[in-house]
Amino acid sequence: MARQPLSLKARAIGLLAQREHSRLELRRKLLGIERRARASAAATGASDGDAPSHTLPDTLPATPSDTPSDPAHLDESGAIEAAEATVDALLDTLAAGGYLNESRFVESRVHLRSSRFGVQRIQQELAQHGLKLDAEQHDALRASELERAREVWLKRFGPEPSREPAEQARQTRFLLARGFSPDQVRRLLRFAGALD
Fold first, then answer.
1. Which of 22, 51, 112, 139 can pair with 41 through a Cys bridge, CB separation 3.0 to 4.6 Å?
2. Cα–Cα distance between 184 and 45 in angstroms, integer?
3. Domain span at residue 85?
4. SS3 of the chain: helix, strand, coil, percent, to 5
5. How confident is the model over 37-55, as pLDDT tens digits?
6. What are the distances in angstroms from CA 7 to CA 59, 84, 90?
7. Does residue 60 sit within a domain?
8. pLDDT for 107-118, tens place per residue?
């Protein structure tokens, strides 16, 4: 006997149970689930009337003006809009119920990343989710950035500072790629022996 597929809400709550998600990230994942559900329904030979009401077509049109007089195209764009409306309504419900909380996502991301990355890298990751640090979080991360950079540096390169320019350049590139500010990196490498 075939198992009944999980509802879209159950899938969303399952994703949120694994870890915090931003609204943008969860929306993208749920729309992907919709596409797979549509493809699965089409593969099993379900007719349009039997397909789930919250499905998307297999392919998205390149632009809204592509063959606007084609009835199949109009059905696809209508299905896309209906699916997006369904997902957006579900996201609103999850946010109202406390399942989806973007400030909790920001706190979680800062907690996970602050021991390995600098403020710039954390801000870039949050910007990809359409979010940003509030002033208090930003100031707290800036205040601890030198010590966090030192911990990352010690873990990667050990306690002895290098005097060779090529090695110092390599260490500088490493720390900058981790999102630590250039001023803090210069300060750390200049006074590496004095920070103990």
1. 51
2. 61
3. 8-100
4. 65, 0, 35
5. 766 776 776 544 444 544 3
6. 22, 16, 11
7. yes
8. 999 999 999 999
